[in-house]
Design a protein that fits this description.
Blueprint (H helix, E strand, L loop, with lengths): L3 E4 L13 E4 L3 E8 L13 H18 L7 E8 L2 H6 L1 H12 L5 E6 L10 E9 L1
Length: 133
């Protein structure tokens, strides 16, 4: 039985690319550190937000899989973007990247504007919490 249930109440605006609430029962929690577009050598790759988002999400999912999970186990994800307007402008493309890499079972999510991230070249960072059976 999946320990995660996604809740999207009718009185709220229809969610696009996120769930309004996620319940989790039992299972094991996995706390995923913030991931940016670092390659295996520790260098930021990608010049655009979509390129960096794809790498950062891929890194997050790599960490999740190494902990024994898969994308549907994500209960909560936070995206930190250095330019929220740019993030909104690329929302459709970022959604396509999410669906290709993580599927259509969306966690509770937030996008937060950040002045800068740890690596000055990083445009986006993604962290999360997953619940495993």
């Amino acid at each position: 039985m999946n320990p995660i249930t996604r809740v999207n109440p009718a009185p709220l605006a229809p969610p696009t690319g996120f769930s309004h609430a996620v319940t989790a029962t039992g299972g094991r929690l996995v706390f995923l550190a913030g991931q940016t577009a670092l390659d295996g050598e520790g260098k930021v790759v990608g010049a655009t937000l979509p390129e960096q988002f794809e790498t950062a999400l891929g890194n997050l999912l790599t960490a999740l899989r190494a902990a024994g999970g898969a994308p549907p186990a994500l209960a909560r994800v936070t995206v930190y973007a250095t330019d929220v307007a740019d993030y909104r402008a690329h929302a459709a493309e970022l959604g396509g990247i999410w669906r290709r890499l993580a599927g259509r079972e969306y966690p509770a999510m937030a996008v937060i504007g950040a002045v800068r991230l740890w690596d000055e070249q990083a445009l986006v960072e993604i962290d999360g919490i997953a619940v495993l059976d």
